[in-house]
């Protein structure tokens, strides 16, 4: 099993967890430069209207280049309430949302200072609920990828995930067809204990 290196992501897509399941040790990059328009601070869920992006606002840095580990979450607007309402609205009719909602809700009630802490703790929760026994470790410097498969590109929404995704049941599949590589919460809320089996 090859060890893997991933970027930090907010409620990462299914491809992240496919990579984690099939890989060995997992390193999360914290010394890369933060970039907008990536899964670092946004995820995609399926709603009645189709794909919907949920984006965490971040504090603007005075420096154009900011390390991921230093990115702070902004309290601008009521994003926590909005994100939780969107998740609830999208998945309340899924088979397993009610079983997992109490695990996720505290993340939208507690204030986190740093985006990477929020992301890693949420990712660890999905691993646990999905039955994947892996620990997430953080990089200690940038560029040392010896012995690790570099999958940091999976944080880019436009990148094609190299993992084939078979269809699974989705709440709005009849309306929109199957939507691949959504946030892994889509798979978890729809498939529950079969999360691991699907991967």
Characterise the protein shown here:
- With 199 residues, the chain is of the alpha/beta class.
- It has one domain (3-198).
- It contains seven helices and six strands; from the N terminus they run βαβββαααββααα.
- The chain has helices at 14-22, 79-91, 97-104, 115-129, 173-176, 184-191, 195-198; strands at 3-7, 26-29, 42-47, 50-55, 136-138, 148-150.
- A four-stranded parallel beta sheet has the order 5-2-1-6, covered by helices on one side. The protein has a two-stranded antiparallel ribbon with strand order 3-4.
- Helix 1 links the parallel strand 1 and strand 2.
- The longest helix has 15 residues, at 115-129.
- The two termini are 16 Å apart.
- The mean pLDDT is 92.
Structural class: alpha/beta
**What is the mean pLDDT?**
92
Strand order of the largest sheet: 5-2-1-6
What fraction of the residues are assigned to beta strands by DSSP?
5-15%
- What gyration radius follows from the Cα positions, in whole Å? 16 Å
Structural domain count: 1
Order of helices and strands: EHEEEHHHEEHHH
The tally of strands reads: 6
Q: Roughly what percent helix?
A: 25-40%
In DSSP terms (H or I, runs of 4 or more residues), the helix count works out at 7
Give a quick account of the main beta sheet: strands, pairing sense, barrel closure: 4 strands, parallel
The outline comes out as globular
**Termini gap:** 16 Å
Write the layout of secondary structure elements.
Blueprint: E1 3-7, H1 14-22, E2 26-29, E3 42-47, E4 50-55, H2 79-91, H3 97-104, H4 115-129, E5 136-138, E6 148-150, H5 173-176, H6 184-191, H7 195-198
Parallel strand pairs: 1-2, 1-6, 2-5
Antiparallel strand pairs: 3-4
